[in-house]
Amino acid sequence: MLGVDGVSMSMLPRATGLRVVLASTGQVSDDLEAVEDVLGLGPAHVAAAGSDVLLEPGAGAAPWTSLVAEFLHRSRPPWVAAVPLRDDSNVLGVLLLHAEHPTAALWSPRWLREIAGAVGLLLAMQPPTWLEATLDGRHAANRAIGMLMTTQRTDASTALAILRARAFANGARLDTTAWDVIRNGGRDDHG
């Protein structure tokens, strides 16, 4: 129906503010989300702030395009759109879509907003505790951030920056780096 090659849906839990991927349709979607997690920026982060994003194939600013190319093992990113999922007034999450050859309908932000609006409405109809309970424990980064806060004696935003920097430096996914931090008890794995 959407005419895309893949979609992922991330949510914004109120407790942490850290985007958590709830569902994705395949490896490319997973890799696009991993880049967002590692860098803490990209189309999904812009959409989480409330704006629609449409990027032509290969478009986007560095370092996002460079890391996408590395994670996808190809020279350029595909066409990407990111649309906020909203209830009446809040952004609940983001739909991140990608396609190698987007159809003309995909270039219509209005159509994409209507799809996102329907998904947002379905999510908003769930009891408030459903989302928080669903997201609890789904993201190892939350545990790793807590450990880094303790071992590094820092706040949550600095701990997240440390975690992202480690992932970026190692060319690794954020969840993989988070599990490494958890296994090391939050200690610096470089001595």
Automatic annotation (TrEMBL):
InterPro entries: ANTAR (IPR005561), WH-like_DNA-bd_sf (IPR036388)
Segments forming domain ANTAR: 121-182
Organism of origin: Cellulomonas hominis
Family annotation (Gene3D superfamilies): Winged helix-like DNA-binding domain superfamily/Winged helix DNA-binding domain
SUPFAM superfamilies registered for this protein in UniProt: GAF domain-like (SSF55781)
PROSITE patterns in UniProt: ANTAR
One Gene Ontology MF term: RNA binding
Name the UniProt record assigns to this protein: ANTAR domain-containing protein
